[in-house]
Design brief:
Strand content: 15-25%
Structural class: alpha+beta
Distance between the termini: 76 Å
Radius of gyration: 32 Å
Helix content: 25-40%
Mean pLDDT: 90
Low-confidence stretches: 1-32, 985-989
Shape: globular
Number of helices: 26
Largest sheet: 7 strands, antiparallel
């Protein structure tokens, strides 16, 4: 036995050396590799370009603005329409349609840094801000020039008294009306991360400025060149010799009563506390400026107030800043449109868990001089106190990510902890670098903590301390980095992600305001009530809750009232009910009561007892078929104006709601698949976004040579591969899922089988990642810089990964020209929610009127504006009505790409037993990819099970009898969809 063990030992040792030697050889081959610079794109950011400019050029001081009229440059803009505008007194203006470019020549006295101003007018009501891009002398020297947001305003108009409260007694938000007027602004950062507008480098003499309208039509007036003068200090501002007539004055402004706002999401809200003004425990009333709605940099509200007596006044706020403990919130404070002195240019409000009265200046309060008459006070969220800290953290993140990618390249992606890699040989300063990162992160945390002298720590930025500790720990054993990437730059707990999360936190600057006091007396009302008042109020609220009839589910509806169940959360209930009451009921006289749909099983049970509603809104689009199959729903094609209602939809989106010759639902929402990609990484690799699957295969070797890859949702974490994941490739390759009569599957047909082979080859031959828990995290770190995902990822990236702003893009998904007709087919499902009407309703015509009204363009546009205003952009969905999508409050990029991808909407039909086909496609995929079974064998094994189950279900629903077809069933698909939905035509380009 000993002899055998010795022989085995002798054989195993050389084998280990061979394995390790091969790993070292691989590493040796990477010695000359050019590491990917993960932060290269950020060198083009304004903050870094400005640093370089300031080392070489001066900010030019001008006594007066330089004014340039666009009418003087008609010869440079033959493609642009110029016209006189009666509401603009400075001459002719240029009308820019979307994507139009206007060029203007300007002359400046000396080479240096200047600010650029612009007059502009939006030609129609808007729900988003206009975006332009700027070129100076045909170049865009910093990243932000490609996506410049122009400031606009919405004016708040109080509701009429009879419309001020909804049927539940809750106060509704006032109307927000876009201000159609001429605006003048100097171009600046959208998040207000800087104290002054953008500086642009201009040469002495002639320069050409090109303005491109990106998302809406604009009128452009004069162009201005100037530089903001430095603000005076409060000491210079205060002049006690000014005539003052004020004495004992106090002006009170309700926090919720702002007149203008520059973001549709800014709103008033309700805070339950008896110290609030106004307040009621029975209902919700608007009694504060909702700080979370204007926590984003650049958000601005304006209050109007009247001063009776000229003089100096203090400004105080009854405010609450109880979120993001230890972090200050910055506000730029304007009086009559101007910041009066430097100390108010970025005033910091400290954390306090209770409502307090805060006077500007605190211990040495500031006074502002106000003359008799009307004035404005504006509060604008500012991030300028954090911009340098954020940029330094971005630098550290980029270097950490670059280090992680370099380690993966050295090791070939190996995470084997038992292999001894000589990382230091290829990255000789790695240990010192990790220690420097750790120290820098901790220093930044300490500097931010010092912004609030009363705070001992910043718990909401503790992720920075965790990241610092992790980096310090990694520095102790740098040769083990290959097995420690989860702590470095991969996954939600890595140092890279922890720092990114801290940046996202830092960019939230909420402050709730109940009352603004403009005063020169010191006895302000107390901000809080005593314990006994709160205790009594709590008892009253508790007992009232037993008798509160609001939102209670009604199982016995009134026969004269249209009963509607809503398949959405309670957050949406007030919006939908109020819209119906304010508009639909007033127009038609039809009373409607909306309730929350507890769950879809409730529908079957309620139908059996006759207590079902008349209409359901927001039900998942695959549900109506099951109810139609059982005779529970009205065929909407029975209504004579059905064709008129569906004209703004892509026909294929109705497929899952079709049963026999009827259509049993109207789509409300849809969710697209987009191709997301990192512009910075693809530029570094010399790649362009793929148009076809052939392009994807060509780019894979380059991606994989840098330990990167392409993501397909089939490689998600779940084992079930439903139609949403598989049908897109099947349809793009010309395949079908069912036979024409639905009695069998088409999986064995050549085109469908080839599609299945391709989708499995992606993972077995082309090595796409098979189990990705979070594409977002990998996209953020750069290990998966390109991939297909639903449109939901757009908002996740926008809000959860601010460090990638401007460095990612989305386009329609790659497709396949299977029939060589020159058109790339990009078919993909667009599941969403729908509206249905029950057959046993006694109010059939009234129900149809509601469904029509709810899904028409104007209603859907207004509904999504209300969602953005009441709940925020993150709660918005994409309208199925394509005209509503085009006019909606969504960002232009979502609308542009969404409308392109919508033309390739194709959802697999639902038939009796369709679940078995979906299940067996999953089984085929898993057998081929995981068990290495030949795809033809896997298909042949599934077909008998599919056919057997389909025939059983068709027999159950009496389409078959003893194996013989007794009733024809036609499966809706792309080739015959016009039998149910009129096809308006599709732009194949």
């Amino acid at each position: 036995m000993k002899r055998i063990l010795i022989m085995l030992y002798i054989l195993i040792i050389p084998l280990i050396f061979i394995i390790v030697g091969s790993e070292k050889a691989y590493a040796n081959d990477t010695k000359d590799t050019v590491w990917y610079d993960a932060g290269k794109f950020r060198e083009g950011s304004y903050i870094r370009v400005l640093r370089t400019w300031e080392e070489q050029y001066d900010v030019v001081s001008l006594n007066n603005e330089l004014v340039f009229k666009v009418e003087d440059y008609k010869n440079l803009n033959n493609h642009i329409t110029f016209e006189m505008q009666s509401n603009y007194s400075n001459g002719e203006v240029a009308r820019l349609s979307k994507t139009d470019a206007l060029s203007i020549e300007i002359n400046v006295p000396t080479t240096g840094l200047y600010e650029i101003g612009i007059d502009y007018y939006i030609t129609e009501s808007f729900s988003t801000k206009p975006i332009i891009s700027i070129k100076v002398n045909d170049e865009q020297p910093f990243n932000e020039m490609t996506d410049l947001t122009l400031d606009v305003e919405w004016k708040l108009t109080p509701r009429e008294q009879e419309n001020r409260y909804n049927r539940y007694g809750n106060e509704l938000l006032p109307y927000s009306n876009s201000e159609l007027k001429w605006y003048k602004t100097y171009l600046q950062d959208a998040l207000h991360r800087f104290d002054t507008p953008f500086k642009f480098l201009l040469n002495a003499g002639k320069n050409t400025i090109t303005i491109i309208a990106e998302n809406m039509e604009l009128l452009i007036g004069n162009i201005y060149i100037y530089n903001t003068k430095p603000l005076i200090t409060y000491e210079e501002y205060y002049n006690p010799s000014l005539p003052s007539f004020s004495h004992g004055e106090m002006i009170k402004i309700q926090g919720e009563h702002f007149t203008y706002k520059n973001d549709l999401e800014i709103k008033a809200s309700y805070y339950k506390d008896p110290a609030m003004e106004p307040y009621t425990f029975r209902h919700t009333v608007l009694n504060r400026l909702d700080g979370s709605s204007m926590s984003r940099g650049g958000s601005k509200v304006t209050y109007e107030f009247k001063v009776e007596r000229t003089g100096y006044y203090y400004i105080s706020f009854k405010m609450l800043k109880n979120s993001y403990r230890g972090l200050t919130s910055g506000r730029r404070i304007y009086i009559d449109g101007e910041v009066p002195f430097q100390e108010l240019n970025n005033y910091l409000f400290k954390y306090d868990r209770k409502w307090i009265n805060h006077t500007l200046g605190e211990d040495t309060p500031y006074m502002v001089y106000l003359t008799e008459g009307m004035h404005t006070l504006s509060l604008e969220t500012s991030l300028s106190h954090l911009s340098e800290h954020i940029d330094r953290l971005y630098t550290i993140m980029d270097e950490i990510n670059g280090l992680g990618l370099a380690v993966k390249t050295i090791t070939g992606g190996s995470t084997n902890a038992f292999i001894d890699w000589d990382i230091i040989r290829y990255l000789p300063t790695v240990k010192e670098d990790l220690i420097d990162y750790s120290k820098s992160v901790r220093d930044i945390y300490d500097e931010i903590n010092k912004l609030d002298p009363t705070s001992k720590s910043v718990p909401d930025l503790s992720t920075l301390l965790v990241a610092s500790d992790q980096l310090e720990r990694l520095a102790k054993r740098p040769n083990k980095l290959s097995s420690k990437l989860a702590e470095l730059n991969e996954g939600s707990g890595s140092s890279y992600q922890l720092i990114g999360n801290a940046i996202a936190t830092m960019q939230n600057q909420p402050i709730d305001i109940d009352m603004i006091y403009i005063h020169n007396v010191n006895n302000l009302p107390k901000p809080r009530v005593n314990f006994f008042v709160k205790f009594i109020d709590g008892i009253k609220s508790f007992f009232y809750s037993f008798f509160d009839e609001r939102y209670k589910f009604e199982s016995n509806p009134d026969d004269d009232v249209l009963e509607v169940w809503m398949g959405r959360s309670r957050l949406y209930l007030d919006i939908i009910q109020s819209m119906i009451d304010d508009e639909f009921t007033k127009e038609t006289g039809i009373e409607v009561k909306v309730n929350i749909l507890p769950n879809t099983q409730k529908i079957i049970l309620s139908n059996a007892t006759g207590s079902n509603p008349d209409v359901v809104l927001g039900i998942e689009s695959w549900e109506p078929y099951n109810y139609a199959l059982r005779g529970m729903l009205i065929n909407l094609k029975e209504f004579p104006d059905f064709a008129e209602v569906v004209q703004y939809y892509h026909p294929n989106i109705f497929t899952p709601m079709i049963f026999e010759d009827g259509v049993y639902g109207i789509p409300e929402t849809q969710s697209f698949y987009f191709l997301f990609y990192r512009k910075d990484i693809l530029d570094f690799l010399g790649l362009t976004p793929p148009n076809t699957w052939e392009d994807v295969l060509k780019m894979l070797p380059i991606l994989q040579s840098y330990q990167m890859n392409f993501y397909h949702p089939l490689g998600g974490e779940g084992a079930y591969k439903g139609y949403g994941l598989t049908s897109q490739i099947i349809y793009q390759f010309g395949g079908e899922i069912y036979t024409e009569n639905g009695l069998g599957s088409s999986l064995s047909d050549e085109k469908t089988a080839n599609a299945i082979k391709f989708m499995t080859d992606l993972f077995t031959i082309h090595n796409l990642p098979l189990q990705v828990p979070s594409f977002f995290e990998h996209f953020r770190s750069g290990t998966l810089p390109i991939g297909i995902h639903t449109s939901d990822l757009y908002l996740t990236l926008k809000y959860a990964a601010p460090e990638l702003s401007g460095q990612w893009e989305m386009v329609p998904i790659p497709g396949n020209d299977y029939d060589n007709d020159g058109v790339v087919d990009r078919w993909a499902p667009t599941y969403g929610q729908a509206s249905i009407i029950f057959k046993n309703t006694k109010l059939k015509e009234e129900a149809w009127e509601l469904v029509k009204w709810w899904n028409k363009t104007d209603t859907q546009v207004k509904y999504h504006e209300y969602i953005k205003m009441y709940l925020g952009e993150r709660y918005m969905s994409i309208p199925a009505n394509l005209e509503a999508l085009e006019r909606s409050a969504w960002d232009e990029s979502v609308k542009r790409v969404g409308l392109q991808q919508a033309e390739w909407s194709r959802i697999p039909a639902i038939i009796p037993g369709s679940y078995i086909v979906e299940r067996e496609i999953t089984n085929i995929f898993n057998k081929v990819v995981l068990d290495q079974v030949n795809y033809r064998i896997a298909i042949d094994e599934s077909i008998p099970r599919i056919d057997r189950e389909l025939r059983r279900k068709f027999t159950e629903f009496r389409y078959l009898e003893n194996g013989v077809i007794v009733k024809e069933y036609i499966v809706p698909n792309n080739s015959n969809i016009e039998n149910w939905i009129p096809r308006k035509g599709r732009d194949e380009s």
